[in-house]
Amino acid sequence: MLCVRCPICGKELRIETIYDLPTFPFCSRRCRIIDTGRWLGGEYRIPGAPDELEHSSFDEAEREKHSYEG
Q1: What is the pTM of this model?
Q2: Residue 14: closest CA among 3, 5, 26
Q3: What is the pLDDT of residues 3-31, one digit of tens each?
Q4: Superfamily of segment(s) 2-69
Q5: In this structure, are residues 1 and 22 in contact, taking their beta carbons and an 8 Å threshold?
Q6: What angle do CA 70, 62, 47 make, to 5 degrees?
Q7: CA 67, CA 60: separation in Å to the nearest integer?
Q8: Where are the domains of the chain?
């Protein structure tokens, strides 16, 4: 038996397998929708490279492009 808590509301879930609960790891469809809304609203973020690094490589490519033009 698995004993887990819903990551949204904290309700304790006791199930035999994850297939016994179609909304796993959430206790309900409502909690699953709340979680999706948090992702779409930007409340959850996955850390990544700072934006400055992405822009600096773009700027470097633009400088190289212009140096060949004239």
Answers
A1: 0.62
A2: 3
A3: 999 999 999 999 999 999 999 999 999 99
A4: Erythroid Transcription Factor GATA-1, subunit A (3.30.50.10)
A5: no
A6: 170
A7: 11
A8: 2-69
